Amino acid sequence: MSGGKGPRRLLLLAGGGALLLAVLVQGAIETRAAARPETSPLLYLPSGRYLDVAAIGFDGLLADLIYIWSIQYYGHYDIADRYAHLDHIYRRVIAELDPHFIDPYLIGALIMNVEAKDPEMALRLLDTGIANNPGRWVLAFEAGFICYQDLRDYDRAAVYFEKALAAPDVHPLVRRLRAAMVDKSGDPRAALRLWIEIHDTSDDAYTRQVAWNHIHDLKVAVDLAELRLAIEAWRARHGAPPRRLAALVAGGFLGRMPADPEDRPYRYDPARGAVDYTGVPVVGR
Amino acid sequence: MTARIAAIALNTFREAIRHRILYLLLVFAVGMISVSQVLSLLTVGSEEKIIKDFGLAAIEVFGVLTGVFIGVGLVSREIERRTVFTLLAKPIHRFEFVLGKFAGLALTIVVNTAVMAAWFAVVLAVRGMFDPRLGLAVLLLLFQCLLVTTLAVLFSCLSTPILSSVMTLALYVVGHLLWSLDLLQARLASPLAKTACRVVYYLLPNLGNFDIKGEVVHGLPIDPWLPVWAAIYLIFYGSAVLAAACAAFQRKELQ
User: Fold this and answer.
1) B46 — contact with chain A (CB < 8 Å)?
2) Rounded Cα gap, residues A159 and A140, in angstroms
3) Which residues of chain B does A60 touch, with a Cβ-Cβ cutoff of 8 Å?
4) Which is nearest to A58 in space by CA: A112, A105, A97?
């Protein structure tokens, strides 16, 4: 049977018409789908450990695809409970499929912290990332920054920055942040030691200048705290503050007499037993 | 003997490169490697990882599919078309016929992988992401494809093309899940069951030996002896499978 031009045209026309109808039906399906809540795909995504079996060696590729999907999904602000499965998607699925995939830890933590306003969830994800990738300083750095910036938990921040410092090729900023956190957590002596170490070991002029500024103010704080402690001890024994600060050294209340960073003696008011710094703090000036 | 195997291999290669499915798979592979560029635009960071993952996956999937789809018809098609009788009427041993067929397909797969790898290298070089360690990953993927091809040739000597495809692909999947047998063995109480599990573990092809995609993509250290061990494993296991294929074809009644 040979086909003429007429039936061929008719067939093409019918095919084109059917395709047009299929496009219209697809549009209708999508309109109906848009009306439904969009969380269903997440409910059926099992843990990465199970997906790993199904991936048969393509676990890295599967992690890529789920990560790309998650970026699109979390960029869609119309879904009401879009943050309900954040921990599952990033920590239980992507991180278990490809534990060395760094960006999902960082982006997942960003979404959890900034958008879902759940810094503890972000820290759990970053902790998983740190455990899986101890050589990647950026994960501990990010966790430390969340503790510093959002939780104002300087002790925890210092611990994370210390973890970051244990990794190779760490950015010099981390040392400074760690010293700053130790200072903010209320241990000026330890902070002073860290800033001196940064100052003495850094090759960068800017870093040395920043370190020197902190050393300047911390030295004043530590010296004044030591002097005030010694004056209080003197007062407890003698009933009144000493007439001169030098008496504290002679009486064994102070190991040595500190001078301020400009090498001047600290100002002392014997009537009130008050000691003070005559200069101006330099950090933030 | 070598000359006869080489002649069959060359003919098989010529026949394979005329196979439409080869070009279809090659176009899909090149397409998938290229599409990774577009997909990387949908992500935040990780473009390099995604392009590398996609490229390596494309080379593996399409390399294996080439081996399977062409390999399973390698012997059975010759029998079906009765061209095998013309060949075997000549002073050729049956095992030479099987080895020649495998060598021809192996050459096709090497060329196929080289084309895919070259395109992958171009895509990476254009983006400034080329990493010479990827060559090592591609080499191991080629070893894997060759091992899968030996299985396809074995099943081609034993069964129909459809059944052979199913069995080869099933063994490919199983070969990537052997670690689960290792886990199962650790949980078994009976020493007999443990031994049986261990025997099955060692008898099945362990394709995990050829998978360093993750290490290469993440820049993790790789045991420098791993490619050598993988090559030795391919030689021994592949030889065993080809020997079985030759034995099966030797006993096959051709009429």
Assistant:
1) yes
2) 9
3) 49, 53, 213-214, 217
4) A97
Q: What is the pLDDT of residues A237-268, one digit of tens each?
A: 999 999 998 899 888 898 899 988 888 999 99
Q: Which residues between 78 and 107 in chain B have a beta carbon less than 8 angstroms from any beta carbon of chain A? A: none
Q: Which residue in chain A has the smallest CA separation from B55?
A: A61
Nearest to B176 among A57, A71, A101 (CB): A57
Q: What value of ipTM does the predicted structure carry?
A: 0.78
- Can you spell out the DSSP letters for B174-241? HHTSHHHHHHHHHH---HHHHHHHHHHHHHS--GGGG--HHHHHHT----TTHHHHHHHHHHHHHHHH
The string of pLDDT tens digits covering residues A187-215 is 999 999 999 999 999 988 999 999 999 99
Token pair of A16 as six digits: 């084109």
Q: How far, in Å, are A56, A62, A65, B144, B151 from residue A53 at the CA level?
A: 6, 11, 16, 19, 22
The shortest CB-CB distance from B177 to any of A56, A72, A106 is to A56
**Would you call B177 and A64 a contact, using CB atoms and an 8 Å cutoff?**
no
DSSP secondary structure string for all residues of B145-169: HHHHHHHHHHHHHHS-HHHHHHHHH
Give the whole-angstrom CA distance, residue B46 versus residue B124: 14
Kindly list the residues from chain A whose CB atom is less than 8 angstroms away from the CB atom of residue B50: 64, 68
> How many residues appear in chain B?
255
Pairwise CB contact (< 8 Å): A107 & B39: no
